[in-house]
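Q: Okay, next protein. This is TetR/AcrR family transcriptional regulator from Chryseobacterium antibioticum. I've checked the sequence twice, so it should be correct. Can you predict the 3D structure?
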Amino acid sequence: MGLHERRQREKESIRANILQAAFGLAKTEGWASLSMRKIADAIEYSAPVVYDYFENKEAILYEISINGFHCLHIELLKAQSKFETPEEQLIAIVDAYWNFAFKNKEYYQLMFGLGMQCSGKGQMKEEFSSFQDLIYECTFNIIKKNGSNPDNACHMSHALFSAVHGLISIMMMRNSDIPSTMNKTTLDETVSAFVKSL
């Protein structure tokens, strides 16, 4: 390995360590307490080194958000690929979204600005719309199969996204006084009623 390749690999390693340290701190202390100084201390470098790789904390949060949306997208595609009918695919996609949110709370909170400012606002249109695009596709296919008006697919799929995201947000922000079983039951009933309404 040449000197240039070795330096490039070292830079990539430091960048990855910065992101990993930031995410680790968020898990233990919360996103609100994250600072460039804490990240630098965690990787045992000076703060200026961190600034060499990221302009500010927001740039780090944005990078982590992108990774979160990428991980979510993979989970949604996996769920969709397991089923043939659009009805089954829709249910599987919503379940995968729900499961991702609660298995990856720190990601989800950052990705959608729960309890904090949303990272990368207006910059992540493609990543942000993955879930909406997939449920729109399923909704459109169900409507088409049922002989209903396909013009309603956009409005209907947006309503479902709003309901699912709303339930998750309530659960995350008020989990001390709302039983998880009630919310999952509500989610399942909402999706079932949604499919029947198409």
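A: Here is a summary of the prediction. The chain has two domains: 1-54, 65-197. Residues 67 and 107 are 9 Å apart (CA to CA).
Q: Noted. On to the next one.
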